[in-house]
Structures are given as structure tokens and as C-alpha cells.
Design brief:
With 342 residues, this protein is an all-alpha fold. The protein has helices at residues 9-17, 34-55, 59-70, 72-75, 80-86, 92-110, 114-137, 163-177, 182-206, 211-253; strands spanning 268-272, 284-288. The model is unreliable at 255-274, 276-289 and 292-302 (pLDDT under 50).
Amino acid sequence: MRTERNLTRLDRVFARLDREPERPAHIDVPKMSRHRVVLFAATLAFYLAIVWAVVITSWLVRFDWQVMFFRPYQQWPEIHAFLDYYVVLGQRGPTAVMVAAWLGWRSWRQHTLRPLLTLGASLLLLNITVGAAKLGMGRLGPHYAITIGSNEMGLGGDIFPSGHTANAVVTWGILAYLASTPRARRWLSALSAVTSLGVGLTTVYLGTHWLSDVLLGWAAGLLILLALPWVEPLIARAESGIFSLRDSWRARRGHAVPAPAASPVGAPVLVTQPAGVDGEAPARETVAAPRSPRAPVYLAPGPHTARSERTPVTPAGSRRPPHPDRVARGTTTTPARPLTGG
């Protein structure tokens, strides 16, 4: 008896993803248009301008110190409890879990791994670029500042640019990047911009970041979102590679599956004879598959003849009684008429 292989949860997930072999037509992949290139160049120039303004200890650094001495958390203490929770929208762990849950559902519904792979690629770029900038510039935060009026650069800090702000821009902005319609993309873009700026200003209120940290973090996150179309070919290649690994994994597991049942008795099999001596084309002959050693239950044992070769006899147990004048079918002999006197 053939046994069916029990499907694992991973098999069911990939079976769900395989329901549509192609991405739905209404989902478009953003291209690196000229407008996007201009925005990327302008944001990069703004990023470099902020870094240069902090390095040369310009008016921006003096403004950072003025905001720090203003101590916003003492000016408006009634909103302190609310902002302690609101700043969580910029922490990498909780926001990544929330956005990944939503994009996982999107991947399930759209039968593609692109939303999750895009989120992973953006977070990887965020960790590399922002982390390198933090460690490279080494700026101290307001709570650990040493010299009043100094830019506090190169002292082993890790707050420039603001990671909370950059993470909020990327994690919430990726929802706008992956939106299915232009209207949804516009609304989600505005919502993510307001959310990320609010997170950045909250860190300034709490005294954990300079204002210039927030500006640079906002620019760093926007650069990642604008550069994602350049990463789309790698995302598509990674998606196809994952499905190729899945197919090879299935093929390796398929060796343990029992072989299918043999072909039914009497099914015709096409056999090719070898070419003859004269170079003739091989003749095709249809032969019957080998019979099962046990005859089916509906056939009587012993040899069987064709219907045309059987003797027309009345079968035993027939309801029609035998008749002396009855002749076999197919004969031309006329039965003799009874003699009558006369």
C-alpha cells in the first residue's frame, strides 16, 4: 500500500507561495528614475553639509548646545511619560518585528518573498552605513559632553547620526516604498516622514541626542530608501536563489518517497525494435504489459477463446427453454415442414 508523505510547515508555506508562479501584475517595482536620482543627490549633499558643519564647529554646534541647556524635558514635563513610549517607534528591535509581521503577511498574500527581502536589505544597509558613521566620527552625546561649545567629535561616542531617527525613516518608510498604489505611497510617505521626525525630536527632548544628530539620521535613512531601486536586481536574484535551494531540497527529499504504482494490467506499451540489417527504420510494435500472476476475480480460470470462435450454445441456467426447431445463427438451412395428410 502506498503511503503519502506528511507535509511539513515549510512545505505548506512554499506551496502557498507557489500558487501563483508570477508576481501579480498590479505590483510594480520602483525604478531609479531621474527624479529619484536628483533627490538622492540633494539628500547626499545635505548629509555632507551637516557633517561638515559639525566638524568645523559652526553655528549648528552652538545651536546644539543652546537646545541642550534649554532642557526641554524640564520645560514640558507633562508629556515626558508619553514620549518615553513614543520613542519606541524608533528602536530597531520592536519596529523590525512589527513591520516584518506586516510584510510577512504581504508576502503570503502576494506569493512573493520580495517584501521581506527588501526589508532585510534595507536594515542591512542601515546597520552598515549608520554604524560605520557612528564609529568613524565618535561623537559624544549631550549627557556625556565634556567641553562646552565643542563638537565632541572623535571621543569614542556613537550617537552621530541618530540611530533612532534613521531606523524610523527606514522601517516605516519601507511600507511606503512597497505600497501597491500611488495614492497609498503618498499617504504612507507623509506618515513615515512625520513619525520619523517625531521620533528624532523626542530624542532631543529626552536629552539623548543633539539636534544635528537628528538631522543627519533623517538624511541617512532617506538615502537608504532612495537607493533601494539599485538593490532590486540583487533582491530578485536572492529570491530566485531561495526558490532554487527549495527545489533542490525537495528533490533530495523526494528520493525517500515510495515509487508510484505499476501500470495497470493490459496497458499498451510502445516498444522500438532495433534496425534491421538493410538499414530499415525500426518498426514499432505494441505489446501488452506483463500480466499479473494472479488473474482478476471476474475471469474464470483457464484458457479463453474469442467470442467469434465459441460454439453457439445455450448457457446453463438460461431462462429461455431449449427448442428442437431452433438452429444456430448464421446457417441458411430451412427447417423441414411437418407432413399433413391430404
